[in-house]
Amino acid sequence: MRNLKFTKMQGAGNDYIYVNGFTTTIENPTQLAIELSNRNFGIGSDGLVLILPSDTCDFRMQMFNSDGSEAEMCGNASRCIGKYVYDNGLTDKKEITLETKAGVKYITLLDGDAKARRITVDMGEPILDPVLIPVNVSGQPVLNYPLEIDGKTWKISCVSMGNPHAVIFTEGIKDFDLPVLGPKFENNPIFPRRTNTEFIEVVDRNTLNMRVWERGAGETLACGTGACAAAVASILNNYTDRKVVIHLLGGDLEIEWCESNNHVYMTGEAVTVFEGELIR
């Protein structure tokens, strides 16, 4: 591989390394994601995102977690892609279609500049069918299902936003030892493709606090699809109204589950951290 030009970006602290796949070919993205994501010996990130041509949309994303596993999509990364392609002259449109393994996402660029920009992503309809999430639990939707972990019963609500999520409403989340607890949910046998896990405190009808253990990445400062799943689960459980602000470790996300079309909309900042070139 020749020297690799990249851009480090973050959305609510969910940071990825972005590579322009129009000009650069990555032969082994799985291994590269592992190497570059290392926060001690690499660039440091939650994973690697490739921005690629699409036959059906304006752009296509391919993303890899820090452990090298490929993910269906990422909401925070989708926002950053919108900013990247606009800032780098790959498009002059402020409404962009993005092909992902979880379907087409619709990105709208709002206010901002070269450093940071607010962006809304139409994340589509939430998936509540346990077969499609997937989770090995009968009945739909899966709300407050009792799951025993280390002798304690946790109540999980399961949603897919193109990738699987288990949402847990509880208290005292700042004190949880997620590096110990998270993998026990992620790798539980009831999740055939593993799962992302959101630990949620309900503040009021319009506000949630959240910590997240991401499948293949560990605890991250934010997860866009996880925030959407948490909002859907909170509405289904009648904890909140249809518009919520979710406070994550890396910042806030605004989520709306629209009643008229059943789509979930996520709004938050996309920020360019720095650009660089990796000498190979």
From TrEMBL:
<dbReference type="InterPro" id="IPR001653">
    <property type="entry name" value="DAP_epimerase_DapF"/>
</dbReference>
<dbReference type="InterPro" id="IPR018510">
    <property type="entry name" value="DAP_epimerase_AS"/>
</dbReference>
<feature type="active site" description="Proton acceptor">
    <location>
        <position position="223"/>
    </location>
</feature>
<feature type="binding site">
    <location>
        <begin position="214"/>
        <end position="215"/>
    </location>
    <ligand>
        <name>substrate</name>
    </ligand>
</feature>
<comment type="similarity">
    <text>Belongs to the diaminopimelate epimerase family.</text>
</comment>
<feature type="binding site">
    <location>
        <position position="163"/>
    </location>
    <ligand>
        <name>substrate</name>
    </ligand>
</feature>
<keyword id="KW-0413">Isomerase</keyword>
<feature type="site" description="Could be important to modulate the pK values of the two catalytic cysteine residues">
    <location>
        <position position="165"/>
    </location>
</feature>
<feature type="active site" description="Proton donor">
    <location>
        <position position="74"/>
    </location>
</feature>
<feature type="binding site">
    <location>
        <position position="65"/>
    </location>
    <ligand>
        <name>substrate</name>
    </ligand>
</feature>
<protein>
    <recommendedName>
        <fullName>Diaminopimelate epimerase</fullName>
        <ecNumber>5.1.1.7</ecNumber>
    </recommendedName>
</protein>
<comment type="pathway">
    <text>Amino-acid biosynthesis; L-lysine biosynthesis via DAP pathway; DL-2,6-diaminopimelate from LL-2,6-diaminopimelate: step 1/1.</text>
</comment>
<keyword id="KW-0028">Amino-acid biosynthesis</keyword>
<feature type="binding site">
    <location>
        <begin position="224"/>
        <end position="225"/>
    </location>
    <ligand>
        <name>substrate</name>
    </ligand>
</feature>
<dbReference type="GO" id="GO:0009089">
    <property type="term" value="P:lysine biosynthetic process via diaminopimelate"/>
</dbReference>
<keyword id="KW-0963">Cytoplasm</keyword>
<feature type="binding site">
    <location>
        <position position="196"/>
    </location>
    <ligand>
        <name>substrate</name>
    </ligand>
</feature>
<feature type="active site">
    <location>
        <position position="74"/>
    </location>
</feature>
<dbReference type="Pfam" id="PF01678">
    <property type="entry name" value="DAP_epimerase"/>
</dbReference>
<dbReference type="GO" id="GO:0005829">
    <property type="term" value="C:cytosol"/>
</dbReference>
<dbReference type="GO" id="GO:0008837">
    <property type="term" value="F:diaminopimelate epimerase activity"/>
</dbReference>
<comment type="function">
    <text>Catalyzes the stereoinversion of LL-2,6-diaminopimelate (L,L-DAP) to meso-diaminopimelate (meso-DAP), a precursor of L-lysine and an essential component of the bacterial peptidoglycan.</text>
</comment>
<feature type="binding site">
    <location>
        <begin position="75"/>
        <end position="76"/>
    </location>
    <ligand>
        <name>substrate</name>
    </ligand>
</feature>
<feature type="site" description="Could be important to modulate the pK values of the two catalytic cysteine residues">
    <location>
        <position position="214"/>
    </location>
</feature>
<feature type="binding site">
    <location>
        <position position="14"/>
    </location>
    <ligand>
        <name>substrate</name>
    </ligand>
</feature>
<keyword id="KW-0457">Lysine biosynthesis</keyword>
<comment type="subunit">
    <text>Homodimer.</text>
</comment>
